[in-house]
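Ticket reopened. Same input as before:
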Amino acid sequence: MVPVSYYLALSAILFALGVVGFLIKRNLITLFMSIELMLNAVNLAFVAFAWQWRSLNGQVFVFFVMVVAAAETAVGLAIIIAVFRTRETLNVDRVNLLKL
Amino acid sequence: MQLVLFFVFGIIAVAAAINLLAQRHPINSALSLIVVMASLAALFLLMGAEFLAAIQVIVYAGAIMVLFVFVIMLLNAGEEERTPGSRVAKRLGYPAVVVLAGVVAWTLLTHNPHPVPVNLSGRFVGSPTAIAQLIFRDFLLPFEVTSVLILIAIMGAVVLASPVGTAAGPGSPEQPPAKREG
Amino acid sequence: MKPHFHLWLIPLLPLAGAAINGLLGRRFPKSLVTLVGNVFVGASCAVAWWVFARFLSLPHEMVPYVHDYATWIRAGDFSVSYGVYLDQLSMIMVLVVTSVGFLIHIYSIGYMAHEGGYYRFFAYLNLFMFFMLTLVLANNYLVMFIGWEGVGLASYLLIGFFFLRDSAASAGKKAFIANRIGDFGFLIALFLLIKHFGALDFGHLFPAISKLGIENAGPGLLTAIGLLLMTGAAGKSAQLPLYVWLPDAMEGPTPVSALIHAATMVTAGVYMVARSNVIFTRAPSAMLAVAIIGCLTALFAATIGMAQTDIKKVLAYSTISQLGYMFLACGVAAFSAGIFHLMTHAFFKGLLFLAAGSVIHALNGEQDMRHMGGLRKKIPWTFWTMTAATFAIAGIPPFAGFFSKDEILWNAFSSEYGSWIFWAVGLLTAFLTSFYMFRLWFMTFFGEFRGTEANTGEHGKGHIHESPRVMLVPLAILAVLSVIGGWIGWPQTIGGTQRFDHFLAPVFSTHAEEAAVAAEHSKELLLAGISVAAALLGLFLAWLLYQKRRDLPDKIAAALGGLYTAVRDKYYVDEGYAAAFVQPLIKGSTYLLWRGIDTKGIDATANESAEGAQYVSDALRHMQSGNVRSYAGWVAAGAAAVIAYMVYLGVRG
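Engineering reply: fixed in the latest deploy. New output:
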């Protein structure tokens, strides 16, 4: 039997990796993938809790998370394409027009 | 047995995630992410979420990551250069990961007030039937809303990614409007 | 059965005229403006006379006729309503105001014919009539105050009628502000009345006050109220020290001077004092103050009038002086004498101003008497009517002024509130009045014409000509009234019935009025003779100085030197007020209020807070660097903080 806390610890590790990747990486697409990693970690946590409490609500929520992640990925990548078209770069430090 | 499987797939997932951070070319990072997702699917199976495991592989790894790979290849982005900033980030970042993950994990492992569940009473399986019953009965409204969300996302993606001059992009003076000439 | 007098028509008809002319008059043809401007006032006058006819046949107990139209304020026990109060006093005032007002409206048709803003003039004039009639007909002090303020407003509008002229605009402001100072006293008196008697309407107030005794032992409540009311009256009726606005008010068109600053508005103060006779007769100190102020004002203004060269200014100071007489009368409890003089003064002073306007009109705008002369043959109608008025004001029998002025002098001497000092000063003033009025008469109409070419080119006719008939008819009517108007007050000593006093007696039935003077007929005749002699002496002196030996006035002026210039320059009172009140106010406003508080305080606060906001935002600006990763860093830091806090809460519990 695997204790639930092990799954949660794994989820936490993956989430932390995603956060750090989000902060460190300079390539826009890699940044985006770190976000996906974070989402996956959360999915794992949800499923773990669903298993713990014997309730399928957690799994349904994972389903919705996936749907939303898909939509977000589509739009986000479209934005990246547009940005690349105008700025000719995927370096996130050069995409700095959103400032005062 | 389950513990062994857990550790195997867990370590694969963590290793792939670390690789995602370590690689310089985004295509390598994408492939690492696919490995992470696959191992997560295996973990889902371990926890009885068979429908979700299938969905994870089909949708997440099969569609979303494919989209990522398309875009990487379309934009032909190269490697990340090494700059002084990135070195600093690496030196700060990796210890930060260790600290963060370590703290959370330790907290979870030591202060968990709930006992280990005993899988004696009945089978708990997230079968498609069961999940479908939940989605289409209790969670009908969120389901409909997410379908609207997808529609919006489609429209948004089409608009944003379309080439300049034909849709409502910032006007490009070199592209004259289509002329109808006899 | 109380008859319906429909008294509300009397003030509201002119208001309708004012509204129509004021709002629509700009697009009307001149004839329509004239029609609207005069018909309503004429109708009001007709209603007033109709009411008078029926008033005379009212049974005794129905007077005063009081009618409430609507409630205005109701606050607990205190209530004020829009209502009318018709007794003999207000009846006379209504008749005087509407009749003289109507005549002056007719006169204005001719006088203002060539001026711009014709419709505006009649609108303001009608508005004035409305307010004045409200004042006179009010059945409580508060509605009277509405009229009081309203006539002040109309006066401001009309004095500053030629508002593009700086001096006219300033004169309008001066009048309004001086009035306001008096109104302040009036208001405080009203507050005192409300506090101590709980009512402001005459029907409740006067019986309540009648029950109080006479305040002989020093100042008390009624003395205070009386003095404050007198302050208000001093402002409105141009007594010392608030008279300074009236000479400046001559900037307005002459019909305005005639109506407002001779016949009606300035008499509102006298009316108010007479109406409050119940209060005054129970406060001897206040009465004494009224008498002293009236007496001093009369003398003071007469001295200044002697040295003026502008024809309207002479008449202005004369008005102040005559108002002083009316105040003196009220101060010695001879209220009916004061009202009698008010009535005759309306006739002859109104006439004097209108005739002066006719002279000015004939001379194409010249107002300086030094440029007049010899007009007797050229504008005969004006000459004869003005002669009637001059004899009336000088107090020469049997003209109207003699009877009223003489009654005042007699009461100043013999009343239990009077003294021979009042009589002596009044006599001296009568002499001076006669002198300066005949001086005006001689300088304007006799001798050779001293004017310039500019004075003769009127309407392109090239010579001095008489005014149009529409201006002359009111002059004639007023001249007739100046002659016979005093006859209804023909004193008993010379065989008359003294109808006027008997008519007003029920209003002023106080302790003082019961002074039976039957036993002093001979003394009254003696004093009357002395005052006639004084008037004739003034006439002789004026003839001497301005007809026979024209060189004398300048020699006398040179001999008197500084005294003469002081009198001519109005004793520098205006300059004194400017230095004592106006300059400190301006300096205080500039340095303290403007530079100090406004610029350094309020503006600085606004500016400093803006600068502070700018400073803070400048510091925070660096959070938004445009660098997505720094944003991500902030998000992560915030999330970490929240998670840490939640963990802390969870661990603590």
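Chain B has a mean pLDDT of 80. Helices of chain B lie at 2-22, 26-46, 50-75, 84-110, 128-137, 140-161. Please confirm and we'll close it.
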